[in-house]
Amino acid sequence: MFDYTPSPSLSTQLCEPETLHDAWRKVRSNKGSPGIDGVTIQQFEVNLTKHLRQLSRELTEDRYYPLPVQKFTIKKSNGSTRELSVLTLKDRIVQRAVCDLITPIYEAQFLACSFAYRPNRGVPHAIAQAAAIRAEGYEWVVHADIENFFDRMDTQMLMRFLRASLKEPLILRLIQMWLDMGGILQPPKLPTWIAHVENTVHHLGEGVEQVTDRLLHRTPRFENYTEYSNTLPEDEWGHHESEMDTQTGPLAQTGKELLTNLGRDGLLLLLANAKHLWKPLAAKQLLFIAPIVVAALAAPTVGSMVKERMSRPRKIGIIQGSPLSPLLANIYLHPFDKAMTRAGIRLVRYADDLLLLCRNESRARHAHQLAQRQLATLKLALNPKKTEIVDFNTGVEFLGHIFDRDGCYQPVPESPAKSLQNQVQHVLKNGAAHVVHSGQHVTQHGKNIATQLSERLKRRT
After folding, report:
1. What's 66's DSSP letter?
2. Is the pLDDT of residue 456 over 70?
3. CA angle 396-402-404, nearest 5°?
4. What is the pLDDT of residues 194-227, one digit of tens each?
5. pLDDT class of 285 with cuts at 50, 70, 90
6. Cα–Cα distance, 361 to 343 (Å, whole number)
7. Largest CA distance in the chain
8. Residue 191 per-residue DSSP state
9. Which pTM was predicted?
10. Cβ(340)–Cβ(356) under 8 Å?
11. Which residues lie closer than 8 Å to 186 by C-beta, 6 or more apart?
């Protein structure tokens, strides 16, 4: 179980102008373009104190809602493209503040095999770790890359990990909104029947509410961004390897969730109309008979609810370019790190790029299969085009370094003189092509003039 005692002042710290001011300084140092609202760093800084106090009030009064992100595509060095997202300046400040507050909680739990996006850890440390493990006799390696990692992260699973490890309702609500920020333009409006249900349940008494919760294992509705319950579900973020290898597949889990939602919506609908439909029955009798008759009495309405729920687009993946995304990525892959480490696999992971170091080829192939199974439980997969099982002596490139029989080294960068020579050759080549093209154009133009003169002479004669 995740050992974390919640600090009652964590949410309070987030709302303090001093915390937001510290986050502002970090956002300003990173510079960056304005978001969809067009507010630049210079414009925000003109009335800095006023803006930070207003942001503090919005957080305190639960009036803060993020704006949609502005997306653009960049080209990577290998020719592929990557989509990045730019948040508004206000949203970057709040995300930076949340990240600074919760990072120490998770840093205490992350394993030593993870090196990306962490304080005082980076590429040099990952390379040194890989070299040290190789020196112990681990000459075979699985060099792998997680396919479309940021785009395929399951946000519902991520929220379960967060709920199991963080007992801060305000911060959980903010993170859920940021994961859904693509569609949030204004505070969501709750359907009127929800208030009717709440009033009906209140009149039926607290005992009815408790029995309903136990019967249906009701959980908070995150899509409505309501306050979270203080009771935590099972610590899914702390799964052991055996737990991650459970035979309960995604289909069975989806069916379970569907039945739970069906029972909850149907029972609440029945309770909401209990005054008219079940007036002769007492509350306890209603609770026992409701699961039996709900399908018959409320099938059309419940069916439409389920149809709407299933047809609703389900968002997956997290945006790249936000202050909180790197931390969320490490939280999501933490169960994978634990499972591989407990299996005795020597792992060096930098975000979605990883090495599995083994003593022989057969062990490496076993590690490869295990990694595939564990990632499948996180709804991820290895990229087959970027995954290889090789001996270190044949050469392995990892994080810009090359491991081979000569050791570990970085490729020698192109010298300035060589770079200049290439640029000159490029200019000369393009210039020559331009001259050739111009010469062809002049020659053709001359031929046209000669043809026209010849035709005129023929007419005169």
Report:
1. P
2. no
3. 65
4. 444 444 444 444 444 444 444 444 433 334 444 4
5. low
6. 17
7. 119
8. P
9. 0.65
10. yes
11. 65
In percent, how much of the chain has pLDDT > 90? 47
Tokens of 314: 């389900």
Length of the chain: 461
pLDDT in tens, 56-115: 999 999 999 998 888 777 776 666 776 778 899 999 999 999 999 999 999 999 999 999
Q: Is 225 exposed, middle or buried (0-12, 13-18, 19+ CB in 10 A)?
A: buried
Alpha carbon separation from 342 to 63, 206, 251, 332, 412 (Å, rounded) = 44, 45, 27, 17, 38
Q: Which pLDDT does position 447 carry in this prediction?
A: 60
**Amino acid identity at 162:** L
CA distance 22 to 97: 8
Higher pLDDT, 457 or 410: 410
The three-state secondary structure class of 358 is: strand
In whole angstroms, give the CA distance from residue 115 to residue 100.
18
pLDDT, mean over the chain: 74
Q: CA angle 80-82-88, nearest 5°?
A: 160
Which is nearest to 352 in space by CA: 127, 171, 57, 152?
152
Q: Indicate the angle between helix axes 206-216 and 283-311, nearest 10 degrees.
A: 50
Q: CA-CA distance, 236 to 249, in Å (whole number)? A: 15
Q: Are 55 and 64 in contact (CB under 8 A)?
A: yes
CA distance 62 to 53: 14
* Radius of gyration for the alpha carbons in the chain, expressed in angstroms and rounded: 30
DSSP, res 409: E
